[in-house]
Amino acid sequence: MRFRIILSTVLTILLFLAILLGIRFGYPDKVVTFLKVSHQENKKVTPAKPVKNHLSLDSALAQCFRDLEISQNQVTKKLIPEDSTLQIKFQVPRGKPMEWIVWFVSSCMLKADYINVDCIYHSEQKGCRLKFKSLIPDQPGIAMHIIHSSAFFSKTARMAILVEDFGFSADETTIGFLSFPEPLTVSMASTKKLSTWTAQIANEYHKEIIVMLPMEPLPASSRYSKSAILVHYPEEKIRSMLNTAAEAVPNFAGFSNYYGQKVLEDTRVMEIIFSEINKRNSYFIMTPETRKSVSKPLARKMNIPFGIIDFTINTDLSAAAIQDSLNHYAIVAQNKGNVILKGKATPSFIKALKNGLPDLKQNGIGLVYVSEIVKATAKENKK
Question: Which domain holds residue 68?
Answer without folding.
Answer: 57-152
